[in-house]
Write a structure and sequence with these properties.
5-stranded mixed sheet; 6-stranded mixed sheet; alpha/beta
Amino acid sequence: MNKKYVAGVDIGGSHITVALIDMADAKVIKSSLLRNKLDSNGTAQEILDVWISTIRQVIEKSEVKVEKIGFAMPGPFDYANGICLIKGFNKYESLFGMNIREILAETFCLNPENIQFRNDAEAFLAGELNGGAGKGFNNAIGITLGTGLGSAKSHNGITVDAELSVTEYGGEIIEELVSTRGLQHMYAELSGKKVEDAKELAVLAETDLHAAKTFKLFAEHLAWFLEKFIKAESPQLLVVGGNIANAWDLFMPAVKDTLKKNLQTVPDIVKASLAEDAALVGAACIFETALAKVQ
């Protein structure tokens, strides 16, 4: 079999997802996908045991040779050297300072260069550009709207983390407003009530004026952020993912209207099509990006 496969790994706050990626068409081999829960506040050994066990299961049950593993990792992380720098985020702090690449290379008997890491928002955009809603576009930006605000940019085959979540806005950082906690906070201020997540708020918006107003405010904050992002990058395409994107009709029409009023040129704006597969595909594509950088 001449096809090339890479193991894509997505590290979340409470889970690890691993799957084989067929690099010929940048698609997840669904039969290989495995997702396991973990305690990100556990000891380093407990966390690594789950990571290693999950990766091993996917590799061992596959019928192809897997020699490369690409990770989509939250930051802060020394992606180039594979060293965890997460501290003060209530997750994975027990891994701080550890060289994850060396540990996994030794465990799986792989050349360290065959284990690569990239930011999770960066992986999301790379996945969508290689096998999803952004396929065929050369210059694009992407955002993930969820627990936090992820941002990435891609020009001429090179996709990188844009690191814009800490952009100053209204006396705080934009992520405090354009995120699930932003929605929760705004709704609580308007109604005095709490919501679990964006999904619950979206259901309420059908009959609750405070919920509808919350999404209107969210659209205003997001439009401000996207206007700056688009001006800086001049992309052909904007890809929007994350759980909040499922409430698309409650905020995106207003965002588009604002951008059309304030910008001379507005890129195509599309919803991500790969869902959680995007990070897995993008993680595997880190090896293709490395080749592009060399060339």
